[in-house]
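re the bet — no i am not wrong, look at it urself. input seq straight from the record:
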Amino acid sequence: MALVPLLVAAIAFGAVTVFASDEPELSGTTVQLPTSSWKPGQGGDDALIQGVLRMDDDYCVYLESGQDQVYAVWPAGWRATRDGELLTIYNGDLEVVARDGDAISTGGGFVPVATYEGEPCLPESGDVAAVQGDVTVTQ
């Protein structure tokens, strides 16, 4: 009798494993990407955030805006990888959002970096861009 629950549990585990493996694989090396708890569909700030997607010597993501490097905090669940020096940003569904050198535009706000204390790849002081909108590649 004890064998039946064990068999059912084994079958259920196998089914979960099969369905969980449908997640697409990301290629390249994972890049530390600072993220917030904000998710698409939630309310947010509406400041215009624009720049060219870049990666610094420490493999941290930033936006090049004129002569400035603007570090951003990305929505919850977003990820980044690099293949050599080629950076790719993925949304929470693991769809490609932008690549190194893409000019992007989005909405959000500018907040003190201390708001995201503990997140990787952020400057020690100043403001960071909190991405809280759809990211559009403009060039």
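see?? The chain has one domain: 27-137. told u. also Residues 27-137 form one domain. so pay up
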